[in-house]
Prior knowledge:
Blueprint: E1 4-7, E2 10-13, E3 18-24, E4 34-39, E5 46-51, E6 58-60, E7 68-73, E8 78-83, E9 92-98, E10 113-114, E11 118-123
Parallel strand pairs: 2-11
Antiparallel strand pairs: 1-3, 3-8, 4-5, 4-9, 5-6, 7-8, 9-10, 9-11
Amino acid sequence: QVQLVESGGGLVQAGGSLRLSCAASARTFSRYAMGWFRQAPGKEREFVAAISGGGVSTYYANSVKDRFTISRDNAKNTVYLQMNSLKPEDTAVYYCAAANTVYIRSYHADYPYWGQGTQVTVSS
């Protein structure tokens, strides 16, 4: 079983930055591709970014590409989401998730392990 604990959410003004962190309890963290998803009230959960087990490959939703950066430190069992140039439409609960594969996934059903979520609010 993999436990994920997220941190770093908060309230920022448009144009600001936040860095989300997700600490994992996995024994072999590098074997899990990791993803970030977000969900606004009344909307479906939305894919944000993913990174392969070794951290070589990344994939981003078009809405965040060139603004967000996903990274991981396998020695620390941690994945990060650096969010720059934040917009009000980025406001959502952000979830960290782990997949049972080293390869990138972008569907929520492919991720059996999830964090508790952290709120990101971007004011205009």
